[in-house]
Structures are given as C-alpha cells and as structure tokens.
Amino acid sequence: MSEIKNLDWNKIREFDLERTNVWISFAFEIIGVVLPYVAIWILIGSSWNTEKFHNYYNVLPVKEFLLTIICIGYLIIALGFNLITYILKWQKEDSFTFTTAIALCLTGFVTNSIWIDKLSIGGFAIFLKLIFLVVFALIGIFIGTLGTMFIRNFRFKIEEEDQILLEAYKKGEEIPSIKKIRLEKAEKYRIKKEQEIEELNRFKEELNEKIAIELKNKKNEKLDEKENKKRNKKNNKK
Asked: Which of 182, 106, 104, 174 is nearest to 144 (CA)?
C-alpha cells in the first residue's frame, strides 16, 4: 500500500487541525480589522466629538452617504486583507468567520450611529446601538460561517482530486484529467442518488404494506367483535 493510501484524509480535516492559531488570528484581526475601524471611528465616526480629536464627519459632502460608502469600503478591505493572508497560508478558512463577524459588527455600529444619534432618546441611544451591534455580529457570523464552509469544501475537493492524481502517478497509470475526475464524481453522485431514491421507494412500499396489514387486522378484529356480540345475544336469548 502506498504512502498516499496510508494518509487518513478525514483526520487531516479534524476541527483542531483546521483552525488558525489563536494568537495569529488575534494579531491579524487587530491589524486588519480593528485598527482600521478605530481610525474611521475617531476621524469620521458620526458620534465621536471631543476637544482632543477633530471629527471630519460634519465637513463631509453628503456626509451620511459618504460615511456609509467608507464603511462598505472598509468591510471590503478587511475581507480582502483576510483573503490575502489566507492565500499566503498565514491563516485558515475559519478566519473568514471572525473577520466577517467583527467587520460587519463594527461597520454596523458606525452606520447605525448616523440615524440613532439624530434621535432624542438620551441614554437609550447607547442601548439601541448595542442591540444593533449584536444583530450585525450575528449576521456576520452567519455569513462568515457560510463563506468558511464554501471555501473549505472547495479546498477539500481540490485535495481529493490531487490525491487521485498522485495515486495514479505512483501506480504508473495514465494521469486522468481534472475534467474526467469531476465527470466520474458526478456519475458516482448520480448512482448514489438513484440508490437513495430506490431505497426510499422500497421503504414507502414496505410501510404501505405494513399499514395495509394493520388496517386489515383491525377490520377483522372489528368483524370478530361483531360476530361475538351476535353470538352472545343469541346465547342469552336461549
């Protein structure tokens, strides 16, 4: 058996092996997500007003629209930075979940402040901002998790194709094309689906037969009860 066959691909995909090191992830989230946000919030954030820092929000042309565009740009840059670190293999797929959740959460905090700060609701404004912060965080986690799953599944597919190619090379066989491998996978998937449909239809037939037998037995039981009642009446008359 070749070395490639001895590899346990399922173990390679275990959760612990698929996570980015916590300190590496933390460092990149601070550099690529948190620090750019802090710069936007201090310099342009609609709710930042102190004597120490000049807030440029009020001097922006079409300020609400432009601040929203800046925040969307920040979100794209944060995800782009994460993609670069992933391509360079500094981070793994799980980083997209964290980056999307944190970036969308912080973006929502700035953009929601635009209209919340205009409301005359006093201290409740902070509570309202926190509510939207949590909502945007949950949306970010959902989107980030979907993105992570998509990217991870794509990598798994590439790994499986590479494994097939390597096994063919080790055996000295003709190396199949990627297109041929995908066609074979599609054919296997079709056969598997047909088998599942056949099993389901078989299960339905067995279930219907079982139900029919049970109904028949119940009907016979009722007929037997009626006949017994009739016999008992006749015996009582005698």
From this structure: 104
